[in-house]
Amino acid sequence: METVTTLTTLSSKTSENLFNEILATHVKDDDRAVDLQPIMHIMEKILHDVDRVINGTHGGTVTLKKNTTLLTFDNGMHEAILADILNVSGELSCNCLVGENAHATTVKLLETLKTYSWNTKMVLALAAFTANLGEFWLLLQRGNNNSLAKSVAFLRQVPEIERLNPLRDGVTKLVQAIRNLAKCNAKFMTKLHSWYFSKETQPISEAKVEIIRATYWTINSVVQIASLLGWRNKNTSLTTEAGKTLIIQLENDVSQIYDILKHHLKQCKDYIGKEIGDAYKTLLILMQRPGGGDIVKILDRFLRRDGIDKVDIEKLRSKHVLFLITDLDISLEEITVLNELYQKTESYEIVWLPVVDGLYNKKRFLELKASMKWYTDVPAILEPAVIKYIKEVWHFIKNPIAVSLTSEGEVTCQNALPLLWTWGNEAFPFIAEKEKNLWHNRYGWRLDFLIDDLIDPELRKWIIEGKLICLYGGGSIDWILQFTTAIKVVLARIGVTVEMVYVGKNNAKEWTGKVTAELHSHNLRVLKSERHFWARLQSMLYLYTKMRQGKGLSRDDSFMQEVMKILAFDGSEGGWTLFCKGADVIVRLEGETALNIIWKYADWENYAKKHGFLEGLNYYMEDQNIPHSCVQLKLPFISSEIPGKVQCCECGKEMEMYYMYRCCKQ
């Protein structure tokens, strides 16, 4: 009963003319989607500290834990958004008066925030007010014992603390009400999937109208609160009964808006939850048909737009389809490799399924879409039931996957990407029997298995010509420069030519980009597609262990031990190198060991003169008791399957297994 009264009260105080005036301030702009979480984090921090100041001692201080940092903006947020918050903050500080002028200021603030969603307008206005509130109480708190704060407080006309004591309880409740409202409003953007929230169905449409009303009255209340606290308003007496009454009224208004939004949030969550559940069940039935079904029906279901801009998928009928499922972090290099594979075959089609939330980076989405040569006439935001199916049935988490479906809609492989990275288009039709045949026919540790024309055509040519080749990688620019200098000195001394190629460092895109520029300045060659190189190595290990059905890896698996050595070498902080003659890998060395041996050329000079550079180096190493250093192996989460027991490629001991979660790929 109380909820109904509250709803009626807010609706009745917003006349049709006022509502139309509010709507006129809004300009729809899809590019201004904002991630509210960083702003909410900062607001919560400020309001929490203000609450502590109000209820603490006059001279109390608010301390932060050591190393506390504020969150950084993401998802396209930039200085312009902070500038808008600052503009609103300035309006609240300078132009706030009660009565009719509160409405004029509210409309002006709505126009300042015209390109944001209604939910975002509310949060940004509250953020601006919170910043002012924090400054106000900080000056108030410090004014008694800090001359700088006292001077600034005088110019800002912050009243003395004694004048505010009678309002302490009221302001405390008001601050708490603002915190509750901001959190509830943000949940509309974080808890309700935008695919459904973009619909004009009940109760969604009703909630949208109430959010518009709530946004206006929230900003209107903020304007009045700002005026009440006395920014440049000498006429407001904070110690009068009228001031207390206004605080109580504003706290009631904010709490009322909170109750309204909470009511509609629950209704929308219940509605969307039921819609997702029903749609998910329908999708399960469709995908579980014996022998599959019509691929067009499946495509139509996965790409459904409910008749709005309906996609043209008829041309994919009778085609073998790969659902390429990614977020927006897929690299352009990965897309380039897939483009080349796709353009060299007519065996399959690729359909991109981007898994993003409602606050996706539109510019990034369009950039990726424009770079793809395959079918990309897809919704930017997939239906929630489809995303639920992709995550729960096909186990998509973060890394890209490619689900293979026949023309009848039967799933033959839940992730064909490792097959494509390893075998290219030879892996089609992406079934287990084909994969086993490929391993049987090409099993052997040779460089021509690691390098193809997509990874580096010139390097591939050198392999065919039987040239002496040195591949090296790692995460230390100092080691790279020391190693390349040492190799040049030694080879010049014995008159041998070697082709040297830097292959990058796995899972370190930003770092590799910086190092690449440095290497080019030293005329050092870099692999054309280092991302593909590392993806192939990881895919080989994944596919091989999967084929062995959980038996694990041992030192007897010579091929995989060589793959593991490179992946393990890469896991160290230094570097590593691999010497080949044509396709035959003859010598592989960990970074520090490589430097020590190369600089000790005098010790193995006779070996080199007798057997040749590489062969001599290999014989010398066999005669020396070079201690090994055990390694760490970092593997990506390709699917729910893991290798099981793995033995160290150096000492043979069974390695401990860990899950590793990493954020910054440096």
TrEMBL record:
Record GO biological process: phloem development
InterPro entries on file: SEO_C, SEO_N, SEOA
Domain of life, source organism: Eukaryota
Domain Sieve element occlusion C-terminal: 434-665
A Pfam family the protein falls into: SEO_N
Domain Sieve element occlusion N-terminal: 16-289
Entry-linked PANTHER family: PROTEIN SIEVE ELEMENT OCCLUSION B-LIKE
Name of the protein in question: Protein SIEVE ELEMENT OCCLUSION B-like
Organism: Durio zibethinus
Classification of source organism: Eukaryota, Viridiplantae, Streptophyta, Embryophyta, Tracheophyta
